[in-house]
Amino acid sequence: MMQSPYSLRTGIYPEIDPDRLTGSLAGKNVLITGSGRGIGREIALAMARAGANVCVTARTSSQVEETKAEIVSLGLDGKVIGIVANVLKLDDQERLVREFREQLGPVDVLVCNAGSNIFQPFHLTNATDWWDIMELNVRAPVELTRLVLPEMRERNQAVIIYTSSRAAKADLPWTTAYNCAKTSITRFAGTLQVELDQVQRIEKGVDNNISVFSIHPGEIETNLHETAFPERTKREAPYVIEHMNKIGAKRPHFEAALPAWTCVWLSSGKGSDLKGKFVDCTLDVGEQAKEARGAVKT
Fold first, then answer.
1. Which of 130, 115, 272 is CA-nearest to residue 186?
2. What are the φ and ψ backbone dihedral angles of 238, each rounded to 5 degrees?
3. Domain that residue 44 falls in
4. Model pTM?
């Protein structure tokens, strides 16, 4: 494997230090899907600490209420609301956006974090399970974007972040649907950025100020890992579990605060040089941005 030119980061480091980002999102309205637990929950907490008004949303009411209560307990200036919604259902998406606007106003930052994955060889994966992963990781964020983008274009100011994965850049076995999904959403983000840069100038007569990113959050241990190995994998393909455990044993421990505060950094405008790009949260974003600035200049 080729060594990265950027410094490896596993937790908070100076570029994304919360103390430096305090107040950077004051007054911004942030919607984070899949924010009832795991990485999404950490993103919601970080956004709130940065001064944002935050909407916690997930399918499970108890998770939404727990995350909302944790943010409220911090005693911050920003507002926090919770909306239970299943982003796989278009009606729920429409209600989510409508209630968000009624309670907070327009969406300034959209973080599409809801997702799922299983580790299973393709020949053992049924069609329903395979396409369910594609639906949640691709169709759901794309359709939610479709709902909020018109208002973002009118205001010409917004940030959209899609939780992708290193799977978008590598041929990882046992996760064909997930790899396809994350590759798709990564290319969607990049292509949407190129389109917006052109269409805002052509149709609105302004330089585009909507930034779109896809991120690799790092291999963070979350509750999703508890259901990552279906019974059929355990029964018919135990070698998959053995393989993944070997990989996991060699991997550094990445803190959930790493992608959370990277999202704050990107949302604050500090990551504008990386708009449209795949941002690896495990690599120093300051160094990535510096190289991107150099590439633009040349």
1. 115
2. -60, -20
3. 14-297
4. 0.95
Positions annotated as catalytic residues are 178
CB 157 within 8 A of CB 200: no
**Residues 198-211: tens digit of each pLDDT:** 999 999 999 999 99
The confidence score (pLDDT) of residue 298 equals 44
Task: Give the CATH number, domain containing residue 40.
Answer: 3.40.50.720
Residue 111's DSSP bridge partners are 32, 161
Asked whether residue 81 is domain-assigned, the answer is: yes
Bridge-based pairing of strands 278-280 and 29-32 is unpaired
Note the pLDDT tens digit of each residue in 1-14.
457 899 999 999 99
Q: Is residue 8 domain-resident? A: no
Q: Tens digits of per-residue pLDDT, 145-159?
A: 999 999 999 999 999
- Indicate the SS3 state at residue 2: coil
Q: How many CB atoms lie within 10 A of CB 276?
A: 18
Q: Per the structure, how many domains does the chain have?
A: 1
